[in-house]
Amino acid sequence: MSTDAIVLLKEDHKEVRQLFRAFEAADADAKAVKADLVSRILEALTVHTYIENEVMYPTVRELVPDLESDILESYEEHHVADLLCAELDAMDPADERFDAKTTVLIESVGHHIEEEENDWFPKVRAALGRKELQEIGARMLEVRATAPRRPQQPSSLKKAADALLG
I need a surface site. Which of 28, 48, 135, 161 has the fewest CB within 10 A? Predict the structure, then answer.
């Protein structure tokens, strides 16, 4: 298994996209299926945004100052995703806004993934060496082991508050 930070993040993106597609393909009245998929989406996104915010973004911001505006935008996109995840986590799948809110989350995160993979990751890879990306990836794997799994967990809430309050 690669410890390259970008490879790890792309693997997360692939998993999240698969969950998004499964949600979009689910029957409109398949509340239990959608509830399970959203639960899995929330866990995947909570872990993913946590390791990016705690390891990837601060490290790249320090090592590649030219990418600071990209990183600040990514923090804000994560903040929006965190808020939507927290709201979905508290919602009942029968709520009339459950599917709509999930769709907005999917669209927002999909946009973020496209920007990262098509614009930001190539810039990071060009600026950092293979060894640095492997070291960042190894730290991400360490942090992943203790990362929050639900949007309502204290460490996840702290991450959201830090993004909000700066």
Answer: 28
